[in-house]
Design a protein that fits this description.
Blueprint lengths: L2 E5 L3 H13 L3 E5 L2 H10 L4 E5 L7 H5 L7 E5 L4 H9 L4 E4 L4 H18 L4 E4 L2 E4 L5 E3 L2 E3 L3 H12 L5 E2 H8 L8 H19 L4 E4 L3 E4 L3
Helix pairs in contact: 6-8
């Protein structure tokens, strides 16, 4: 059963949507403010999100920046074309103007769920507060996105895929060449040092440790 998260502070619209979706055999979760929506998303991962823009706390536009790898249909009374374009470029898959026809909305939901299933959900690698989306290449620590270079992404991806093991330097160089061509044995240390600093600055602690004479691994207590 697909789960749909409704993010809307309008109780009448939210209740109507919940009833309609449940009649179509979807499971439904709710958030009534932008702040609550971010919390809900930190605890669970719905299959699709219906997002209102005019929310208490964080706005819908701000909430959208916290959503990665989940199809989002924006529902708004704003009909301005520039606003629509900006939101679609910002990550939404669709934009429905209020008031909307429920049959049309259900059709759009079905299409986007089918499309997302066909494309395949991206793999999200996690370690403590770190998450790495291998489809979007977006890394985050404590739900805050951090900017990684192509090489830093490749290193972190390999370490997260083998987080219980020590990854030898030679293995790192060999395996990350699939994702990046610009890492050499002499530059590997610099790339890892920069990656460790970015993770430490965001999370307040070291996540990667060097194993003397062998390689590197994710640091466990």
């Amino acid at each position: 059963m697909k789960n749909i998260l409704i993010i809307d502070d309008d109780l009448h619209i939210g209740n109507m949507l919940e009833e309609t979706l449940k009649n179509e055999k979807y499971s439904v979760s709710r958030a009534y403010s932008g702040t609550e929506a971010v919390f809900v998303l930190s605890q669970s991962r719905p299959d699709l999100i219906l997002l209102d823009l005019m929310l208490p706390g964080l706005s819908g536009e701000e909430v959208l920046t916290h959503i990665k790898g989940i199809p989002v249909i924006v529902m708004s009374a704003k009909a301005d074309i520039d606003n629509k374009v900006e939101l679609l470029l910002g990550g939404a898959v669709d934009y429905v103007t209020k008031p909307f026809n429920t049959k049309e909305l259900l059709a759009r939901i079905a299409v986007h769920l089918r499309t997302f299933d066909t494309l395949g959900k991206s793999e999200v690698l996690t370690f403590e507060e770190i998450s790495l989306d291998t489809n979007t290449h977006i890394a985050s620590v404590k739900n805050e996105e951090i900017k990684l270079t192509r090489t830093e992404y490749a290193i972190l991806k390999l370490l997260l895929q083998n987080q219980t093991q020590v990854v030898a330097k030679s293995q790192l160089l060999d395996r990350i060449s699939e994702d990046t061509p610009d890492c050499t044995e002499s530059s590997l240390k610099t790339h890892i040092s920069n990656l460790r600093k970015k993770l430490r600055d965001a999370g307040g602690k070291d996540y990667i440790e060097a194993i003397w004479g062998i390689g590197f691994k994710m640091k466990t207590e």
